[in-house]
Amino acid sequence: MDDRRFVTSSKDSFNPTTISRPDSALLKYYVVISLLTGPMFPITLIPLLFKYETLRYRFDEDGVSMSWGVLFRREIYLTYRRIQDIHLTRNLVQRWMGLATVAIQTASGSSGPEMSIEGILEADPLRDYLYSKMRGARGESSLGSRAESPSADVANANDADEEALALLREIRDSLQRLASQRSASHE
C-alpha cells in the first residue's frame, strides 16, 4: 500500500509549469546516440548540442509551447483543444537513462507528431496531465455550446433540421419559379 501512496502523491505533486528545459540526461542521450554513428560522431553531435542548449518548454493554462534553434529558430504552440492523441515512447537507451519521448498529435494531417517533448524524466505524469487538459478543454467547449440536458440537445437538433428543411424548400420553390419564368419568356 505504501507504493500506491507514493505513486498517488507523486502524480498529485507533478506540476508541468515548472518544466522549462530538458533534463541533463537528454544531453547524455544525444552523446550516446551520436557515438553510435561511428565516424559521423561530430557531424551528428553538433546539431544535437545546439538543440539541447536552445530547447525550451512552457506549459500554461491554454496549451504547451516548445522552441529551439540557433540559426533557424523553430517554435510550436499547441492548445490543449487541438490535441488528438498522445504517445509515450522509450527506446532501449532512453529506458536505461530514465528518459522518454512524449509525442503529441493533432488533426493537422501530417504523418508524424506535431510536437515531440524530449528529455522529461516524469513522462508518465506529463502524459496523464496532457490527457486531463485535453479532455478538460473539450469538455469546456461542449458545455459552453450545448444545453445541459440530452432532451434539449435533441430538441435543438430537430429545430436546426426543420430550419434547414424549410430553407431547402424555399430554395426549391424559388428555382421552380425561376425555371417557369424562363420557359415562359422563351415561348
Description:
The protein has six helices and six strands. It has two domains: 144 residues, PH-domain like; 39 residues. The strands form two sheets. Strands 1-2-3 form a three-stranded antiparallel sheet. A three-stranded antiparallel sheet has the order 4-5-6, covered by helices on one side. The chain is an alpha+beta fold and 187 residues long.
Features:
187 residues; alpha+beta; PH-domain like; 2 domains; 3-stranded antiparallel beta sheet; 55% helix; disordered N terminus
**Roughly what is the average pLDDT, rounded to an integer?**
83
Shape: elongated
Radius of gyration using CA atoms only? 27 Å
Q: Approximately what portion of the residues adopt beta-strand conformation?
A: 15-25%
Return the CATH topology of the largest domain: PH-domain like
Number of helices: 6
Straight-line distance between termini: 92 Å
Number of domains: 2
Q: Tell me about the biggest sheet?
A: 3 strands, antiparallel
